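Supplementary Methods. Inverse-folding protocol.

Structures were first reduced to a discrete structure-token string of length 524. This string, shown here, constituted the complete conditioning input.
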């Protein structure tokens, strides 16, 4: 997952959890408010019913004109009274008044209530499970009992409170054994709260939709802000990192905002500047190291060079001496002058090869016969190869576009190492061939070899296993640098006591460019 995805996911998760907790808390709070309101409504209704019952009891009941809908209460001792005019009146006691008011309340949807008792006179007032539990709790001293029940229409608040026997109640209930202060039953009240559940559900849906809209809006805003303030500058910084060092530090397009990413871009620019300076210093130091290694190699060639010069010089001196002794001898001059010319040419060739090897120049790409370059290197090394058998398998046999001095330095460095690895003589095998538009040079010796644990270090600058004064530790480092400058590769295989094999692979081209500057891949 990208940083942008993680950031948006975190924001959406936090907002979703926040709105989820808010929704749960709001729903719980609404539920508590509704239940609390229903409880207060039930308590108020209980007090109103008690007052109504008290009024009816204080007036010895209510008398209503008997009709088809107003029938006598069969559970009263005197359910009917006849006036002097013959009008029949039906008595209503507090229990009947309570029942009939409950029927009116139920039809209006406000709730319903009734009187119940563990010893009901009217079997219709027998308690249900909730009312039985309430009546038992009243006998233990509780003043009210509440519960949430559910019927076909939804949730219902059940409320029950005790009915205490008053003095005015004894006219009807004294025969049942009740005394003032006794709990003769309970008033059971049911308040429907299904309407509130529907309201809470609607409110929760509204909160959910608003929360979802808020989360989506916040996510979109955060996405836009993240793209503008973070993702775009980071992409800009990443492109600049990829462009360096091919693109100059001054030309890098870095973020310039006055924030953390802007400061990061400024720090990266400063880092690039320090890195460029370090690379320049390293290149200068490397060039000095390469020059030092060349001079060291030239020093090792001194004996061979002296031999190549001294031999023709001795012959030339003898010729000159003889000519001085017989200046009039024209036959002698004709015979010795070609010898003098041949000796001078040999010295000139040796010095030119030596000067070419010591020259420090940028890569010069031109058509080269690699096999001839190898032969030139072996001629320079002639004195050091006196006790070594050289086997050549030069099969490149073609011209290619490459730097001859770089090839010469590569071959010379590896060959010099090979001669040093065979102090008592041995075999030096050199081969060249073309393979898939690549020139492959193989230089193999039968010397002392390289230990396995040292193979990864032989190309490190100043690493050497030779005695002090017999090696600078730069030869193979220079060779690796030269191979890399030519976009090639070098591999080494070695076994202690059996010798070493260096395989150099270089790309070649048949078409040469005029200068190195036209070929960026070959720049130093």
């Amino acid at each position: 997952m990208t940083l942008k995805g993680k950031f948006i996911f975190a924001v959406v998760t936090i907002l979703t959890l926040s709105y989820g907790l808010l929704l749960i808390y709001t729903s719980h709070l609404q539920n508590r408010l509704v239940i609390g309101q229903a409880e207060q409504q039930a308590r108020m209704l209980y007090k109103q019913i008690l007052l109504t019952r008290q009024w009816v009891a204080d007036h010895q009941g209510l008398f209503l004109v008997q009709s088809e809908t107003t029938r006598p209460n069969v559970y009263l001792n005197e359910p009917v009274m006849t006036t002097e005019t013959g009008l029949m009146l039906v008595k209503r006691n507090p229990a009947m008044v309570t029942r009939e008011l409950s029927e009116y309340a139920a039809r209006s949807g406000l709730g319903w209530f009734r009187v119940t008792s563990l010893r009901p006179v009217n079997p219709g007032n027998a308690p249900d499970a909730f009312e039985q539990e309430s009546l038992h709790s009243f006998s233990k001293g509780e003043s009210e009992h509440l519960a949430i029940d559910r019927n076909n229409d939804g949730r219902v608040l059940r409320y029950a409170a005790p009915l205490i026997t008053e003095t005015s109640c004894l006219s009807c209930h004294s025969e049942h054994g009740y005394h003032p202060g006794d709990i003769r039953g309970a008033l059971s009240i049911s308040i429907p709260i299904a309407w509130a559940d529907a309201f809470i559900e609607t409110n929760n849906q509204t909160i959910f939709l608003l929360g979802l809209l808020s989360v989506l809006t916040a996510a979109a805003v955060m996405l836009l802000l993240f793209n503008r303030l973070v993702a775009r500058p980071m992409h800009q910084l990443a492109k600049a990192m990829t462009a360096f060092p091919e693109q100059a530090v001054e030309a890098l397009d870095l973020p310039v905002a006055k924030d953390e990413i802007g400061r990061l871009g400024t720090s990266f620019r400063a880092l690039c500047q320090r890195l460029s300076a370090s690379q320049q210093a390293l290149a200068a130091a490397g060039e000095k190291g390469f020059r030092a290694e060349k001079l060291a190699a030239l020093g090792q060639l001194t004996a061979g060079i002296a031999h190549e010069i001294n031999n023709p010089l001795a012959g030339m001196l003898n010729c000159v001496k003889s000519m001085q002794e017989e200046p009039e001898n024209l036959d002698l001059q004709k015979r010795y002058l070609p010898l003098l010319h041949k000796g001078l040419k040999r010295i000139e060739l040796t010095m030119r090869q030596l000067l070419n090897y010591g020259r420090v120049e940028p890569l010069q790409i031109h058509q080269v016969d690699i096999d001839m370059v190898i032969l030139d290197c072996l001629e320079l090394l002639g004195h050091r190869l006196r006790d070594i058998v050289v086997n050549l398998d030069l099969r490149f046999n073609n011209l290619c576009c490459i730097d001859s001095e770089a090839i010469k330095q590569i071959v010379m460095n590896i060959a010099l190492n090979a001669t040093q690895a065979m102090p008592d003589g041995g075999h030096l095998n050199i081969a060249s061939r073309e393979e898939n538009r690549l020139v492959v040079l193989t230089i193999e010796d039968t010397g002392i070899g390289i230990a396995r644990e040292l193979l990864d270090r032989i190309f490190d600058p100043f690493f050497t296993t030779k005695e002090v004064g017999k090696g600078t530790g730069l030869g193979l480092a220079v060779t690796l640098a030269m191979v890399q400058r030519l976009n090639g590769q070098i591999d080494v295989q070695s076994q202690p006591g059996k010798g070493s094999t260096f395989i150099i692979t270089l790309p070649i081209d048949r078409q040469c460019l005029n200068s190195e500057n036209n070929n960026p891949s070959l720049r130093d």
